[in-house]
Automatic annotation (TrEMBL):
Keyword presence, Transmembrane: yes
Record carries keyword NADP: no
High-level lineage: Eukaryota, Metazoa, Ecdysozoa, Nematoda, Chromadorea
Record's keyword terms, sorted: Membrane, Transmembrane, Transmembrane helix
InterPro entries: 7TM_GPCR_serpentine_rcpt_Srh, Nematode_rcpt-like_serp_H
UniProt superkingdom: Eukaryota
PANTHER family: SERPENTINE RECEPTOR, SERPENTINE RECEPTOR, CLASS H
The protein, known as: Serpentine Receptor, class H
Pfam families documented for this protein: 7TM_GPCR_Srh
Record field: transmembrane: 12-37, 58-85, 97-114, 135-152, 187-208, 236-264, 270-292
């Protein structure tokens, strides 16, 4: 019997994602607290856009790391779930639909961060003021519509599973004892909607980025607002760019790997599992970068760490004083006797 690596097992995925969800929970709560109560007046204009992104990011995180816990057999679109939804009896095709929709809403919310900056800086004075709400609403509607082709073409399982097992190498018993579900055996219904939505959001983000760059470097802006205001806007934009770029890396690494497995028909279950671990870290890294890149939130963290350090120092000082008092008391007693 061939020995199976622990990294290839469902137990590794379940344990790792539970650990990640446990670490992320307090950080997500602290991030929400900072956005709501520690955003200064200079960040009020971006506060709700940041909260919107944080909300969808937390939803995606908990869907992956707690409610679904996916075990996927790339290069096929098949696998099973190990999370709470599985115990609740929610069919896997609905779990996949929800995951795909939330993945897109996070990207839409990321784009909205920069749209919000452009609208406040220059968009109010353009035709964009009339079209922004319908366009943003369509983006969110499309985020929940684009997974429908694959969902509606959910295959008949017995023949689809037989086809999948022929494409994969012999699977160990530790995997076969789970009920494997094939989400799609026609990749056209799976890949084309993803490419379409990625293109739409990517093009919108590039256009907004170009408009922001043009506005920030325009001569008229320097006569309308102070250099201090321009500097503040640039700092906020830089922080948002760092935050969203970090999230993009957590998305792009797994997506690049998944596409490679499909193109080269390559199966490595340990790499598949690690791929999802990298993806599930996006909320942890995004929240951490948000707290670090924005100066007001960084100050809150610094003050919190400084308070804990001073508290430890004070307790040590009290212990030293107490020990000194006890020592002096013993000396006085010895002398008096």
């Amino acid at each position: 019997m061939t020995e199976v690596s622990y990294f290839s097992t469902p137990e590794f995925v379940a344990f790792s994602l539970h650990v990640i969800s446990g670490v992320e929970l307090p950080l997500h709560i602290f991030g929400t607290y900072c956005i709501l109560f520690k955003s200064p007046d200079s960040m009020k204009s971006v506060k709700w856009s940041m909260l919107n992104l944080h909300f969808w990011s937390v939803c995606l995180d908990w869907t992956v790391t707690f409610f679904i816990i996916p075990f996927v057999l790339f290069p096929t679109v098949a696998g099973f779930s190990l999370g709470m939804f599985n115990y609740m009896g929610l069919p896997l095709e609905r779990q996949c639909y929800l995951f795909a929709a939330l993945l897109c809403t996070v990207n839409v919310a990321s784009m909205m961060l920069f749209e919000n900056r452009y609208y406040l800086m220059a968009g109010k004075e353009t035709m964009w003021k009339k079209f922004r709400i319908p366009v943003l609403a369509v983006n969110y509607i499309l985020a929940f519509l684009y997974p429908l082709p694959a969902y509606l073409k959910f295959p008949e399982q017995s023949s689809a599973l037989e086809e999948v097992l022929q494409k994969l190498p012999p699977l160990p018993e530790v995997i076969l004892r789970h009920q494997i579900t094939v989400y799609s055996n026609e990749l056209i219904y799976f890949i084309i909607p993803i490419v379409f939505m990625t293109s739409v959001i990517g093009i919108e983000t590039l256009i907004i980025g170009k408009l922001i760059h043009f506005h920030m470097n325009s001569v008229d802006l320097k006569f309308k607002v102070s250099l201090k205001t321009i500097s503040m806007q640039k700092r906020i934009l830089t922080a948002l760019l760092i935050q969203t770029s970090t999230m993009a890396v957590n998305f792009l690494i797994p997506i690049t790997y998944i596409c490679s497995t499909i193109v080269f028909n390559y199966h490595n279950q340990a790499a598949n599992n690690i791929c999802f671990l990298v993806f599930s870290l996006h909320g942890l890294t995004s929240t951490s970068i948000m707290l670090w890149s924005h100066r007001p939130y960084r100050a809150v963290c610094s003050n919190l760490l400084r308070f804990k350090r001073s508290e430890t120092t004070s307790s040590k000082g009290i212990q030293v004083v107490n020990s000194t008092v006890r020592r002096n008391t013993r000396i006085d007693i010895f002398r008096s006797s």
